[in-house]
């Protein structure tokens, strides 16, 4: 038996059914390119009849120089009581010009009887005619058996008969779909075995995650002999999403020793770019990363408890199921009051600052003091890096505040949402210049709220001196009350996530600020974000000696 | 064989290891109460030695009147070469005063040899001594076998020997932990069988989701005979999280016909409150909901494809694996995102308002509109009651805003915590008096931050007219960003919890406000809190007719 499992990606079609997911044609082409580079076998590009965007995609994808992947167009079997050659969907599939096409047909008698309201013979003819027509047009035909598992549960004979109709008409593979996502792994395994016995072509698997079992069902199907896995990157898709090809590929390669994607290198089974691919798709789809996503999430190998950190430092496998490097991810040691010195050593080492005993003691004391005051550095690595630099004496600020003012003024109200007060912030900064002088900048801006106004004024003041800040955007803003029993006088902790698109590698970082005043807490987190951005774009990375000098601002 | 599966929740302990997760003591008590009401069997409240907050929790949890759940304190087996009775961790476990304790010990020879660096006999003695000591102190003892599956893979004899040490010393159950989350379901099933044959007490299962298989592994273990499932609400926890008890409970009850939580009612297997519970925990932990979360996510039964919507309208089960009502969730093509009409009926009944069809429609439409704007009423019952009153025409405001102003002014700073800006709020209110006149009150106050200053000014203006407000305190204040991809211009939702100590029964209530401006959102939530307080202390409860009159203010 071959250990190769084909990966069939439908991020661009089924994934785009997810709530909040939309891809431009350019997005789709970029993702196609990446999937090909990673070694995916099939890329389902869209449903050519459904919208003009998909039709344009199929035009333009021909110009890509794909090395490995086969692009597929997706559509339905012919309509009832229509000849295949007269069916607009099938015609659009042919016109898409892809070497392979995927057609989906009905397997569950409930759908045939209650939704389609056709007789079973016509359903079988719709499948057979469509596959045969596409085959005769020179296409490789992949047949998706919608609701196979529900259909097999309800009426196994009929369900298997629909598969035979597709296989006998020339489908190269029949893909068994758990369309509603309700099946359990042992049933999936049994039904896959039954399908394999019933037809002469191989079978594939297509799962949804409604029962939180899409990965398990996918693996069970492969272990039962399915040779193709359909799914989406990061599991995006309708309702609870499709099977996540990231988790499927990593498990198949690293846990079950199947061959997926590009040929294995350095024992990593072709999955060493999964983290990069996952983040690329999130970014392209403009979706928030899932921090705890298996294998590729930023928390997937993050260690918080002091005991765990201690053990991981002795022996990584003690609290890690795989080496994170195998999927292109990395270990992170979270800084926390509870977790002790091991965390600090790890972070300082990453910063290439000599973690001598004096620095260790200073950083540790400062972390304890700040965490006591309500700071949390575990999800604010940029603030932590600045803190370590400050303790090591290598931090140099790029601007100093003279003062800020924020004024919020409401009109009359009727206590409904939608009536927003007027908010204005003014700021006066002193910016150290290379010649030792100071530039004073005093600006005012409006905003949707106090933080937004302050951010706007701060940028207005800094941009002429540091134009590279135009590439920095705030991507998330979180507020949490720390000692809530004091009601509105409680301290608040603000966490800000920022994204820098250039120069250099795009990057994301998080910063933190704490104060009794939400505006001041936001100010502190904003400052850290901007200082981090400015240090990041200083080339080359300042050493301890160099950075004592004021930075060289860009010309205004 | 009994079909009952015990659910053991460790949201408050293992869940709090998740990145960005912190619970106040009050949060922990609220969650404990909810878990008990839902019928969870065990609630692991914390690690009493690890921090003073957990110690305080174990003090205060004794005052809760729990109906069903057993609270557990969590800790480690004794240290090496220490007598159990001299061990501080075990002593803290006893002192926590819970009827049951959970101790975790080492199962994997790698940890014993490489991390602990002790001999195997000492490891077995640490387990046996600790269990026996706690048992002798009158505790029910749950033994967590850390890394059982890795240990069983590496050295099955030794792994099983550690289980026997716990069972023979008196553990009532031995829980098999997939600590690193790396195991696959078929292996989990085999290892659970082996454990059951090796010891005389029952076994439980504790999974992590590093391979995206926590739910599948949990189900496999129960099918192999485990009688207890450990996990967290929404699967929060370190790295990729723990097994999600929501998905586990729903699958066990609805797919595998096990008995979980409270006795089944209306065929729903005790899981009909899972959606509410899931959202309550997200809100309390101030974490973003996962829209596509299986069973309980807001997209879990949302239909986007036109074909699917058509089919679902003909026959819901055509694209739904379960009836969403079974887990308290809703199909999204229905009129409202709120968990159902029953909420409206309940509120109206409490308010002695006739819940006729017209009112139902008005309230539902308003809820849909406000939820679309970012409101959430699930944890803001007081705001919801006010909304029902407004829709019924029985709401009468006790004060009207002319305007407010908030001014925040910082001095110079050195970017350290502790330097707070000066914040001042002024407010002008018009208060309707019994004789039909208006009293205008214009006050100014300082505060620790804009919300605190506004609250202070509001109270200063209202107290002379409504002295009963002196008994009302704000006990919690939460802010969350609703559409975070827009950075600081995102909308924020403020939730306020208030406590009224008199007159009448002491009570707690929650209110909500949404705006792009955090000050305005806070204003809306503050107003609702005060209106609710004033309506509450009006005796007798105003009826629809009475409340059309302005309230009778107390003498100033």
How would you characterize this protein structure?
Among the domains of chain A are: 6-285, Aldolase class I (TIM Barrel); 399-465, Double Stranded RNA Binding Domain (2-Layer Sandwich). Chain A is built from 17 helices and 16 strands. Chain A has helices at 25-38, 52-61, 88-95, 109-116, 120-136, 148-154, 156-168, 185-198, 214-223, 245-255, 274-285, 306-314, 341-350, 357-372, 381-392, 450-462, 518-537; strands spanning 6-9, 42-46, 70-76, 100-106, 140-146, 173-178, 203-207, 228-231, 302-303, 332-333, 400-409, 422-432, 438-447, 472-481, 492-500, 507-515. In chain A, α1 (25-38) links the parallel β1 and β2 (42-46). In chain A, α5 runs parallel beside α7 (156-168), α8 runs parallel beside α9 (214-223) and α16 runs parallel beside α17. Residues 539-556 of chain A have low confidence and may be disordered. The interface between A and B is large, with 131 and 133 residues. β11 of chain A pairs antiparallel with β9 of chain B, so a sheet runs across the interface.
